[in-house]
Design a protein that fits this description.
20% helix, 174 residues, alpha+beta, two-stranded antiparallel ribbon
Amino acid sequence: LYNPVLRLHSASGELYGKEPWNYQAEAEMLVTKILQKRAKMIPFIYTLASKNSLNGDAFIRPLYYKWNTENAYKYKYEYLFGDLLVCPILEKRDTTSLLATQDIYLPEGNWVDVSTNISYSGNQELKINRYLNEIPVFMNEGGIVYENKYHTNSLKNQKDLVVTISAGNGNSVI
């Protein structure tokens, strides 16, 4: 989802397929929702592509590109996708609560959890819990995300956009 490249297929062969319809109904339902969310995010991804083309800005950046701290290296699976800090869940979920617990690091600054709208001060380590259908994503202060209002397979520009702006530091420009 928070990646410039999307491929559902892999090599040929019964054991190599990654298509969601080859798995249980729960996986197919989750992947369908993720793909619909990604379709909504095309304007945001397009903006990242434009910045990449014009300025050489990378779509995905490790934390240590921006913060030269020990934790920026320690939390090597977290990354920036534009103004979004993505913290993948790498732990198995608990069979009773169905929640997975993950240690994460929020770098310097102020951050808003995109799923819960809870604000956090940065430069701290946290333990978070998420269900299988939730990816921990945080927007930094002044962050901007553009999305289509509706998911679609059309290549035409959509008329209805949703713009999310995190309360900021006065440095963001639309």
